[in-house]
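[INFO] parsing input record for Methylmalonyl-CoA epimerase, mitochondrial
[DEBUG] input buffer:
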Amino acid sequence: GLLTRLRTSAPTIRTLSSSNSSQNIPSCFWKLGRLNHVAIAVSDLEKAQSLYKDVLGAQVSETVALPEHGVYTVFVELGNTKLELLHPLGEKSPIASFLQKNKTGGMHHICIEVDDIKAAMAELKKKKIRILSEEPKIGAHGKPVIFLHPKDCHGVLVELEQA
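[DEBUG] output buffer:
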């Protein structure tokens, strides 16, 4: 009956053994680390802080101004990672232009730690991945960061942060 047909038509899932999968992964002089945070652009920073702190019960940092990046930041602690709430600071803020296109806000970028940001930059440039600055800038955590062009990363703005 139906159960027999479902069993026979179900796809077979195969896993790759470690010896096969490692052959396809190029060796790098740097490694990706953990997801540091997901950044969310918000049009009303106080309301967003209140949502995470008062409604959802998360630990929420104070607002920090980062004029060199054109943003105010607030971090929401989640245990295994963080959310970074971003709000425009100044007329040339990249978050202001993001919010013009996305009035209610939304996911802006993801941040992944790397063990060697300079090696990552060199190798990514060789692989034709565009980096949005010539040199790393100091990010919200006081560590060097770079951003990778979203068109080279399947539509996602990727921030790499020195671990």
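[INFO] The mean pLDDT is 88.
[INFO] shutting down worker
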